[in-house]
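[job 4417] fold queue: 2 targets
>>> target A
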Amino acid sequence: MFAIDESAFFSAQQLAEITQGTWENLSGELTVKKFHYVPKYIEPGDLLVIRHEKWPNKKYLYNLHKVPDMVAKGIVAIMANMETPLNVHIPILRVSDTYQALRKIAIRTSKLSTAKRILVVGSYGKTAFKTHLWHLLKEHLPTYTCLNSSNFNASTYCDFASLKRNTEVFVLEKPIEHERKILRRVKIIAPDIVVLTSIGHEHIEKFKTIDHIIWLKTTYASGLAAGGKFIAPYDSEYYPQILAALQRYPGINILTFGSGANCHARLLAQRFRQFGWDIVAAIEGEIIRYRVPFPEAHAPTASLAELLCVYHLGIDVKTAVAHYYQCTNFKSSGALYHIHYQNKHFYLYDQSRRGGIEGYSSFFKTVAAFQPEAQGKKIVVTSNFVDHVDGEVALLDLAYFKQLIADADIHCLFSVEYFTEHGAVVPDNVIWEHRFTVADIQEAVLNSLENDDILCVKGIYESDLPRLLRYLKQLPGLRMKRLVSRPWEDDDFFELSDVHEIT
């Protein structure tokens, strides 16, 4: 890995000046690895930021009670409000408001850092894109990103505060927000490249229409630095609307990825094999062949945008693609396991943590590509496709999903929770068993599995389907190994001359 040194932008005294704070228990200089406020992501050497009840986002709870555990874990300092009670012997930076203090540090760092900023936005795929790009770059340039899902404003501020003087590339993600907030916050980020991974129905209940979602996501182009680039998905059914929305920024450089003849990153051929994809692509006219070790149906196209970023950061794409084998997807992006239990073995494809209409479409296309060995069969466990309380059921094209499931050649489908709201998607030849709770169906799922089967689990964010994974992992004697598709070799990879024959 190309090393990022520990040379922070600010000394402890400068941090106090920027935040108008004061230090307690400080003796000598302080070396902080990262700033963070989510205890489960804290590592030794980090500075823990204490949340308070007036923080804008309420997703993460007040974390003061975690301080003893975090001190034992090896944090080197704490940032806390003046009145926050603390009984520790490590340095404490006392400020009037930890959220605003973080923001001040971020703004100052943004002005000083010369790192190229890659801002990732989109309905789906942001965290996976960010993770993959970091792996592709880290051997070539000092690159920083938070490898967890971190797109709230406080997370962005922590990321800026964590940059070092020699950081050359900074990759971050942002969610959809109201336009006023986007315009204000993208000025702090000042991205050199904005990547739009996808457009879909995520948050449609809040922002009402796809056109409004497109407008908001393309608003991030307003903050592009001089000479900045906006990378857009050509194969999206909404590409014309994306292009139209970008016309309000006439000075930007729009790059595309997909199957179009004029795409800057173009997919020429793809083949699914052994839970991964063999790919031939042209990146800014340079034809390369490579392998992406992820089974998802969208993985080939997603890799094009990643490699387009690599190219425009001055890295040789043919060298970079080898680093896909160092990637481990974030938990919401899916994982593949080989399981041995009692006298049988089977595969588990875990997509239990994140759903949505487009996510389910990609899931069933992925399942269709799976080819079980010997007499193995494909078994699916699913929750409802959308959160029933948001009224999104009306957006589902039931006939479309019924055809997707039929094409996936599923032997048996187990469903839980509110799936019966759209049970019409199950083809007549698929065995279907429904229970409302995961606990009521987990034994039936286990008993249905035989040698070489592929168990595919898909749930929306609100679903309890991760419980099924916990149930399997706790079975006595069960052995589970996470799989990464093997690299390609010259003797089994299709030749460039065969491109026209590959589908």
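>>> target B
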Amino acid sequence: MEDAVTLTPSLARNLAVLSARLHVPQNADVLIRRFQSGAFASAVVAIDGMVNSQRIDENILKPCMDLPRSAGADVAGAARAAFLMENAVSVIAAKRKDNVDEILSDVLGGQCALLCEGCAQAVVMDVRGYDKRTIGKPEVEHVVLGPHESFSESLRTNITLLRRIVQREELVTQFVSAGGKMKTRCALLYLRGTAQEAMVEKLRARIESCDYDFALTSGEVEQLIEDSPLSLIPSAIRTERPDRAASFLAEGQVVVLTEGSPAAIGAPATIFHHLHTSDDASMRWQYSTYLRVIRLIGMLIHVFLPGLSLAVLRFHQELLSPMLLTSVYETSSRVPIPVYLEALLMTLAFDLINEAGLRAPGAMGNALGIVSGLILGQSAVSADIVSPLLLIVVAASGLGGFCVPSYALSIGLKIVQLLFLTAGALGGLYAMSLLLIALLCAMCAMQSTGSPLCAPLTPPRRANRDFLLRLPMRYQKARAFFARRSKDD
């Protein structure tokens, strides 16, 4: 039997098609319940464990089965689904569909399908009842000031968290599906009149045009909507905090939520979004400006310090005082490996310790990072494998990396750090300067959903001045440059 694209008036054939697609009776999770609803037969199709059985019993089965035997006898077959919606079913989230693929997608997502004899439509009702994680604290984006709520893996819960903050009638939610055979349900949220409609349609088209078998996580969806797949800098901003996602909406960005992922994606984004934190908006502008400067200095130390140390030691010794240069050579003379290989191994060892501490369970991760750092560092210096100065440089560089608020950006900067380390070892400050110019030109040419990644700094754009240094609230009334302009901007 060939699968029908749409339902037919025959209840038996519709159930046969759905049973074949869901591999019944081999698939024990599929629930199919036939019953009499007034003057005609009906059936319910659902997935066990994905639905709330009590809601199905009380809001669907019992009201339909309690109808008199003569109820619906004079109703045309095509109108029987509407008849049950108006007279029996008491589920508020219900709509009629006739496409088999859409009905199966909804059933597999935890909804329930009600089919009637003689009707080529099904009533799809939202009766989800699967277990989900409660709202907790953010695991990555820790803050001292501000809310302490984070997104969960439930798409509906995440939308509710955003709507509880952004209580405006302009907030629009659109559902799209990503992936080919295994579709993932996503939601696009934006403020109508603030976000550009062309940008919303561009994001929708990129997600729906996914030709991969599946895109299950928000990270995979982010890779579908980015402009530059080969870039080391992410072109979209990801957050696990509802309050920060709400600020994206206010700026004119589109927020993408994915079923099963406790994170939201904001697009388009700029490089400055990756340097901001939720604390910035919760404290006075002087404090947040100071902390942003500290984060910027830490990021520069993380990227440039190892390469600068190698460049100075190998090509530009005149920049160091004779006393410091003598001390460095004395300690380095006992190390049997080249200074570049020494720096590379120490940098990779630091990243190895960081990754091991991150993946280790519970409190073991913190102890693992501290103990490994102390043992490896002290042992390496005592065994004359690395010089003390290089150990200090690598430790300071790693500490600066922890100042980067965005985890995705911090990984990209680690790769950039290795590039500058190699450039400094091969050509000194001149090679590092050429690499810096090349990376800045590439970054200025990058786009995020059609918007310049480095704007409004370059190219200059008329926008909110809160991008590098935070200014008082009275100077932050303008919208972001990628938003629709208002009369006050």
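[job 4417] complete. Note on B: The mean pLDDT is 85.
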